[in-house]
Write a structure and sequence with these properties.
By secondary structure, this protein is mostly helical. The protein has a single domain, classed as I/LWEQ domain, CATH 1.20.1410. About 75% of the residues lie in helices and about 0% in strands. The radius of gyration is 18 Å and the shape is elongated.
Amino acid sequence: MPISEKSFLERLADLVPGVSGYRDREARRETDRRLREHMASRLEEAREDLNRMRLRLRGAEGLDLLDRVGQLDRTLETCVASLRYADQGYRGVFDQVKIGEKELEKLYAYDEGLLLEVRGLAEQARALAQDRPAQAPLDELDRRATQLARSIGRRREVFEAPAE
């Protein structure tokens, strides 16, 4: 089956081992937790890549980039914390009364976008850590990380927005 024809749940199951779906209320909570943990783990890997890069930075140019890498690391740390500790804020979100098919579809689309952005950011961090660190690629990675942090923060709005 071509990727474009796969449902979100099939794509999610391909990307995140052990994820079954959002249909059953208890499975929704567990799937949501696993998805967020998977994304947080990928971002932790990106932070490890940045730390390896940090160790390679030397000289005057390296000192200038160290601040940028530190700022990026803090942004990723915020993203990880937001993903890992969001559970308490979503406790009632998956009650059957509160979430219907349209809301689920919005959630699927939003989560798929988050997952793809996390994967892209982690891949970019890995590639950057293997190259010679430079200001422009760090700035781009920081821009992506800042946007991701905003998107993670707005995830709850997906639940609260009225279905179209």
